Amino acid sequence: EMSCNELLVSVTKPGCEDYPNMDSEESYKLSISEDSFLLTADSVWGALRGLETFSQLVGRAEDGTYYVNKTDIVDFPRFRYRGLLLDTSRHYLPVKAILETLDVMAYNKLNVFHWHIVDDPSFPYESAAFPDLSEKGAYNPITHVYTPNDVKLVIEHARLRGIRVIPEFDTPGHTLSWGPGAPGLLTPCYIGSKPSGAYGPVNPILNSTYQFMAVLFREVSTVFPDFYLHLGGDEVEFTCWRSNPEINSFMKQMGFGQDYTELESFYIQRLLDMVSSYGKGYVVWQEVFDNGVKVKPDTIIHVWKESVPYQHKMAQVTKAGYRALLSAPWYLNHISYGQDWLAAYKVEPLQFAGSSEQKALVIGGEACMWGEYVDATNLTPRLWPRAGAVAERLWSNETVRDLQDAYYRLADFRCKLLGRGIQAEPLFVGYCDHEYSRS
Amino acid sequence: VWPQPQHVRVWPGSSSRLVPARFRFGYARDSAVGPGCAVLDQAFLRYWRLLFAAQRRPPEYEQLW
Questions:
Q1: CA distance linking residue A51 with residue A28, whole number of Å
Q2: In this complex, do B39 and A48 lie within 8 Å of one another by their Cβ atoms?
């Protein structure tokens, strides 16, 4: 048994890139022989993936010595978008919890953090242009907010791990928390001829709405360096719009009839044009596609609904020539008794009726952790190692599907996570050499 | 390894020992990227710590830290 004291890293293309992006090269080669360890990658992002692999190859013998077996690895991702969504509106997640999640994402070679930062219940994003949004919309404007420094910290922590941060400011629905800090932005709901005092989605018929959005999204476009923003567009409830006489008068004027999806499309269209003008690309939830909104050809359609089998939607979206991102089978906030990681693992993103050109438009997928029943107390064990199943499906070869083999490797990986201080839940009965310890 | 790499070849029975006090990550001579690249400099520190959590960092890492 030889001893080697160095892992040499060779990056072939010059440049320590600023931020990872959709086209970042993540392939690497790792050569472990008795007397030399060499990691080669085209970019620093590939080198990061190789370092993670190396760290998983190192074992520890009973006498405490560290060793690594002679190994050659050639590796690259199957999909270039391998994401995880955290919802920080239903419950506030402390920055520390987000940073730890980014750490574990890197251990799993996930590369996109989709930050669903605001929604109906709370608005924790501290906006420079509109400080009242968090002042009046956060659960607590002092303790339950993400300051500009917090956001920078998250973006930098992610960058250093080769992870992109895509924020989502979902509109026109899911915006109740915006109301108190932005008077006039939301639609007043009516009962008969009188306002009920309740509010619905963003009011799409006022110029002031678009002026507000222009300023907010200009700020967001600057704060978040990734080319893509997630603009939401899901679950728009029409009851309030339907009750409002001014909205109905506008509908008539525009010739929309009683079709409120037309009104929704009118709003989304203007929003997308605005964001495009800031030099940004966008991801939208599938309803935007379902409603026939005219979007840029490079728009990414995020497929999430299970009501219509998602395979049909993947086929439709790609047939229309749009890039598709899959989340429908990966809502990890849904839990059940037993080994539910298996369901996530068995998914095959390209299993839908379509041509090879259509399949090439599937850029990857995203595990989602919606926050209705999740805060910092249960986030980590609910996510890990279950999100690992999604990570392997998106990174590894399509042929890697052996459930028994996956079980042993995932159980072993989960033990490694415990060793790294991560409270990952067990897959089934068993033990780890080093169990989780609080210290 | 999780997730499973695309191609792996392991030679059983042939292994190397790692001595934490001496082990380091470094840039190969032909690497187009070298010291000063924060992404890798910091990753070296991070992974050294992950591998040998209970050990003392080598002097050059102490300095960087």
A1: 9
A2: yes
The DSSP 8-state label assigned to residue A177 in this structure reads G
If one counts every other C-beta atom within 10 angstroms of the C-beta of residue A408, the result is 11
* Rounded CA separation A150/A113 (Å): 15
User: B27-38: per-residue pLDDT in tens?
Assistant: 999 999 999 999
Cα-trace Rg, chain A: 23
> Phi and psi for A370 in degrees, rounded to 5?
-70, 155
* d(C-alpha A321, C-alpha A298), whole Å: 9
Contact A56 B1 (CB under 8 A): yes
Degrees, nearest 5: CA angle A16-A159-A378: 160
For residues A56 and B3, is the Cβ–Cβ distance under 8 A?
A: no
In degrees to the nearest 10, what's the CA dihedral of A182, A183, A185, A190? 140
* Alpha carbons A415 and A437: distance in angstroms, whole number: 12
With H, G, I as helix, E, B as strand and everything else as coil, classify residue B11: strand
pLDDT computed for residue A383 by the predictor:
98
- Say which residue the tokens 């690259």 belong to: A76
DSSP 8-state assignment for residue A202 = E
Contact A10 B47 (CB under 8 A): no
CB atoms within 10 A of CB A260: 21
Q: What average pLDDT does this structure show over A34-58?
A: 96
Catalytic residue, from A34, A235, A348, A357: name it. Answer: A235
The residue type of A279 is G
* ipTM for the whole complex: 0.94
